[in-house]
Design a protein that fits this description.
The chain is α+β, with helices and mostly antiparallel strands and about 475 residues long. It is about 40% helix and about 20% strand. Strand 6 and strand 7 form a beta hairpin. The structure holds adenosine-5'-diphosphate, zinc ion (ZN) and magnesium ion.
Length: about 475
Amino acid sequence: MQNMETVVGLEVHVELFTTTKLFCGCSTAFGAEPNSQVCPTCLGLPGGTLPRLNQRAVEYTIEAALALNCRIAEKITFDRKNYFYADLPKGYQISQFFSPMGTGGYVEINLDGKIKKIGIHQIHLEEDTGKLFHAGDDILTSAYSRVDFNRAGVPLIEIVTEPDIRSAEEARLFLQRLRSILRYIDISDCKMEEGSMRCDANVSIRAAEGSALGDKTELKNMNSFRSVYKGIEYEVERQSGVLKEGGKVIPETRHWDESKGITTAMRSKFVSADYRCFPDPNLPPLETPAEWVEKIKEKIPELPSSRSRRFIDDYGLPPYDAEVLTVSRGLADYYESVLRYHRDPKAASNWIMSELLRLLNAAGLEVDECKIQPEALGKLLKMIGDEVISGKIAKTVLEEMFASGEDPEAIVERKGLVQISDESALEEIISRVLENNPKSVEDYNQGKKKAMGFLVGQVMKETGGKANPQKVNELLKEKLDG
Ligand code: ADP
Ligand code: ZN
Ligand code: MG
């Protein structure tokens, strides 16, 4: 039991950014009046027109498949997955069972600087179901339920990984990277909290690395990356407990209870044969000629893994910095724009990662909503580099820029923040500080070198933080030791 290994495979659903549904012209806009975006086709009513495939959705799926390094099917076909549920008005879901759009891909994740490939088993296109609302929390005891079919027929892609994930942390990293990639190609906003990205986690444990896969459970209802992480951790603990007591893991679907932090049995697993899938007779196969795929490929921008590698190679950034800065295309673009105005890659990275991201997070803003233009940040970094202002002062200038969008030079000028590096001016202040603090001077002379820090602090205080700290250190040392 010592070296038991966790095995996880994820099934991720992502809603595509199309304005209309997958097989009809109904709007996909979020937040509309319930059942206002429906028609006989997506409701499965008699008299509906035949399904007409949304070409944009197909192109997005091919783009995603390419971004995930998949092979593209030569023929696109759709199948019916048959089951009854109140949120599925047609009695079947149109999906791609026999021939998914993309297969055999991978996503790279960064494990403490080591790159690991997580296999992508397949990616396919399907339609979403409606949404149920239960009166009361519990489905079984609620008096009634309501259903909104606005979501029924909205295009979804499903991405299925190989069972290559070995921990809750790897699952989190995978989801983050997947979200980054899909946002780079701009096909979805991938918001787990809003349901535009949903993730089921298949979890099992086995005796040791390389031994046969154990029986798995499938976790549902996790609404954030954090919940996916916690759900997997909980499930691994639970299964180990079962196995340690000589029991067997029952293959079943389990429900993650966010408030209790546990998973509970929901139903036993359906196998694919239960759905009696067959090709949808209303949807003829669609070929994917190489020129078409090539054209879609040309739209794909440089993706996070290669961009991160380039940041390391071209700008000499540590892998951690490169990873953070390439999480979103907007942030990576912002970083590279700043470098166009002031080419000090590490300084730009430090200021963006620590100060700018802190301000953005606190304000709940994305980088493209930031009032500080890359050029202005470049100017600020140049002023720091040229020792016109100290790093400490620069922080307050940056905060002001962030709030008002004002130019850093204008702020520094208006507030008289230019750093004092002039030796004679500093010497005068230092003499005064030494006179006023004889005790510290004595301490220093008796070997208490810590007194130095206090004296530097006093000089900084006298100058309102504007003294060049390095100069102050040098001059103070000269005076005290000399
Ligand atoms: P099912 O037939 O139960 O739907 P699939 O083989 O289709 O199972 O796999 C569904 C998902 O479960 C995939 O992401 C796959 O990687 C993952 N998976 C398969 N077997 C295991 C296992 N033993 N432990 C963890 N995950 C698994
Ligand atoms: Zn419709
Ligand atoms: Mg399956």
